[in-house]
Design brief:
elongated, Cro/C1-type_HTH, Lambda_DNA-bd_dom_sf, DNA binding, Helix-turn-helix
Amino acid sequence: MDSERIPAIIGRRVKQYRLNQDLTQEDLATLAKVSLNAVKAAESGKSTLATYVSILQALGHIDNLLAAFPDEGVSPVQLLKSSTKQKQRASGKKRVKPADNEELDW
């Protein structure tokens, strides 16, 4: 999926969550403790992560956001290498190639 389309998709989903709960943009702004313009921006896909967090918490959908970033914990290999502390930095030995334009399934 093209990374420029993702914010618009998120905005449409936030709007649908709001409509499914029969809330006006003003009601959601009050519940999320953000401005009306912040809600409008979020629904158009032009917002900050902090605003999306506030809105999703108010809508009861914060788990949807957290599901995108599951806690992987410490890898078993890392635990074997260092039993006293967790890894704090990457070694930089792996080189990352640009992602293929894969379709997201969420």
